[in-house]
Write a structure and sequence with these properties.
One of its GO terms (molecular function) is transmembrane transporter activity. The protein has 9 helices and 4 strands, in the order αββααααααββαα. It is mainly α.
Length: 211
């Protein structure tokens, strides 16, 4: 049990630390006539795995230990983020991560006895929306430029104009990135159902279901 718990914590730390770095890099590619750099960062593809780790921890260990996985991952990931990313990114990531993951655990627990896909799907969708709002607002909206200034850094806000999702009306770049990020999270939430079910079935075959 302890070894599985430590694996869950390590997985959470790895996912969040990697995502905190990758979110700083837009996807430098074109899709048709759309510049994906106006829509996505590479972190959009890695961060949703954190919800998979949380949901599997919740299913295997129950909500209390799942919260421990989240808190342990939060503490270590924030420390790594301060080293690997800017203080503003670290604050935004830590805040969004903690609030969204704890909400995910609560929703998952309420739905854990329904159809196998209900809990991971709906908990991830709702929590991903909240995570996206908190992170991109704190990390990139000009309203929170004071965080950079407090740490003696240049304003890292992404407030310059860009077409919404590369094709729509002009909005501030962080808003387009946020919407693109959330749309990827929706797709990833669907894709994560397959590994969730596979690992869930394996875990449940080896231990009793948590209450």
């Amino acid at each position: 049990m302890l070894s599985r718990f430590l694996v869950a914590v390590a997985a959470m730390v790895a996912v969040v630390a990697a995502s905190n770095v990758l979110v700083q890099f837009p996807v430098d590619a074109m899709l048709g006539g759309v510049n994906l750099g106006d829509i996505l960062t590479w972190g959009a593809f890695t961060y949703p795995v954190a919800f998979l780790v949380t949901d599997l921890s919740n299913r295997a260990f129950g909500p209390h230990r799942a919260r421990l996985v989240v808190v342990a991952g939060f503490v270590v990931a924030v420390i790594l983020s301060i080293w690997l990313a800017t203080p503003r990114i670290a604050i935004a990531s830590g805040t969004a991560f903690l609030v969204a993951q704890l909400l995910d655990i609560s929703i998952f627990h309420r739905l854990r006895n329904s159809a196998w896909w209900h809990a991971p799907m709906f908990s991830s969708l709702v929590s991903s929306a909240l995570d996206t709002i908190i992170f991109f607002t704190l990390a990139m909206a000009p309203a929170f430029a004071g965080i950079d200034l407090f740490f003696g850094m240049e304003d890292g806000s992404l407030a310059f104009p860009a077409p919404l999702l590369g094709v729509g009306a002009e909005v501030e770049l962080w808003q387009s990135l946020a919407l693109g990020d959330f749309l990827v999270k929706l797709v990833m939430a669907l894709l994560m159902l397959a590994p969730y079910k596979t690992v869930r079935d394996l875990v449940l075959s080896r231990m009793p279901v948590a209450a």
